[in-house]
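Field reference: sequence -> structure
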Amino acid sequence: MLTSKQRAALRSMANGLETIVQVGKDGITEGVERSVDEALSARELIKGRVLESSLLTARQACEMLCLKLNAEPVQCIGTRFVLYRRNAQKPVIELPR
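Structure field:
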C-alpha cells in the first residue's frame, strides 16, 4: 500500500512519461496483460490510456490490471491511468518513506 507522500512522488515522476499501454475495444486481453506485466517488471512505473472505443473506463481498466498483476494504482484522470509495481530483484525507483 502506497502512502500519500509516495503516491505524490510517483505522480510527479509519471508526469513526463509517455503512454506505453493502450486498452482498446476488446478490453483487457492476454496481450495487454502480458505487455503491462513486462513493462512493470522493467520500469516499475507506467502510464496507460483507454481508447474511446473501449467499453471500459480508465478507472475500471486500472482496477482490473492492478488486481491481475498485483500492482498499485497511482493516478487515474480522464482516459489515462498510472500503475506502479516494485521490482523485488532490482528496484529502479526509490520511494520516500
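Note: DSSP finds three helices and four strands in the chain.
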